[in-house]
Amino acid sequence: MRYIEIYVKSALSKSGLENTDYSLNPYRGCEHQCVYCYAPYVLHIPLQEWRNVVYVKRNLPTVMDRELKRKKGFITVGSVTDAYQPAERKYEITRKSLEVLLKHNARISILTKSSLILRDRDIISKFREAHVGVTLTTLDDAFRRRIEPNSSSVEERLQVLEEFKNKAIRYIFVGPIFPEITLPHLREIVKMGEKLEVDYMIFDRFRWKRDMHLPPWLQKYLRGADYAEIKKEVLKIARESSIPIYFDW
Q1: Which fold has domain 2-247?
Q2: Are strands 200-205 and 245-247 parallel, antiparallel or unpaired?
Q3: CA gap 196, 132 in Å, rounded
Q4: Could you tell me the pTM of the whole model?
């Protein structure tokens, strides 16, 4: 993995995500190397560069400190790349950014596949509103290693939710849904959320992007995917649960 330190002119990007005003991405590129990642296709970055080169935004916290004097609203940390990928252990750009966000009394949300977020419980627990979520595409950790090779294990992600209890608003993000991979675990994931007493769950579909490369062995799991029917199945299970359920499609 190659790290390149860069200096940016802006930190906060106007967001098109629902219920989010701005996005903050401390890094460009991602070491998790999820095989279904569509971020490089959205940003028009070559796939191999995205997976093997991480650009570290060294001055991001300083730039954001200035921007937050005039930019107000809800901020999602790590909207196109994981803010807690391995590079964060060395550079701590995310931690330094959180310190600035806390200084400005910002409202934030962080979605991650890394247990490294536990390092920052001391800061995150001080926010007036902080949402902490983990992604669960499957509960089969052997399969998780195939599709999200450099991310934290399923068990570690569940531990994140456990340890943030009473320290943040917690949620599970189930996505992208691969019918044959995710659906067999759907009821169990919801029950896991109930056991952990998470505040809500979000479900999302797989999204093809132009010129997107997807391993042939994974493509077969998407053939004939009927997300309208999948939504009905999710809603059926959701009716058996007390956890609020939301969809990103």
Answers
A1: pyruvate-formate lyase- activating enzyme (3.80.30)
A2: parallel
A3: 13
A4: 0.95
